[in-house]
Sequence to fold (254 residues):
Amino acid sequence: MKIKKILISQPEPATEKSPYADLIDKYHVKVDFRPFIYIEGISLKEFRQQRIDIFTHTAVVFTARTAVDNFFRICEKSRATVPETMKYFCMTEAIALYLQKYIVYRKRKIFFGTGSVTSLVDTINTAKHKGEKYLLALADTYKPELPKALDKVKIKYTKAIFYKTVYSDLKDLNLKDYDVVAFYSPAEIKSLQENFPGFEQNGLLIATFGPTTAKAIKTAKLRLDIEAPTPEAPSMSKALDLYIRNKVKNNTDG
Fold:
């Protein structure tokens, strides 16, 4: 089967330097982008239903910029001023710098890891910070790795949901038009099932990024055809490139 049309379950890249542009040039395939999910901040009422007092905590943990936006949105809606003594712990330096949108950036109150859960927990689990009361600013579909790692080193924290994943309306989408659909998260698989009850894969190729997404495909009893990241394919675009290249090579050899 020749691959002519690929659907990426993500928003279209804002830049023309998208890695998918190379696929289009090399193999003359058509690549469409359609988000299967989107993020929506919860309401103040929904937040209050969690019965969490932000200001009984002395530190906030952010794993994404979206978490930063929605934390300060809820604070603003509740007309609460975040005390200057609050400490901020971020997954990456980029997230830490993003805090400048809301506060005066002072390094003595802002700390960050290098992008992994281990590096973030190592930053938190020091004699200097171990006694803080941490608030984890999370989405409703948060990954359990961070809470588990904090439990392991006996850090006190509260999980607070500030935003949620919503399934996109995809009823107008005809999946039979595509040869490959690429997924990036388990929530996108749920969206597939929600929008297309009784979905049958048949000849459609499914690509996934990340082990949890691959697991979600198998749990849904669907066939996984293309997987990333791997040593040979650290990105989705590279995994698709290798798959199409092998298809072209095998057809030529045949």
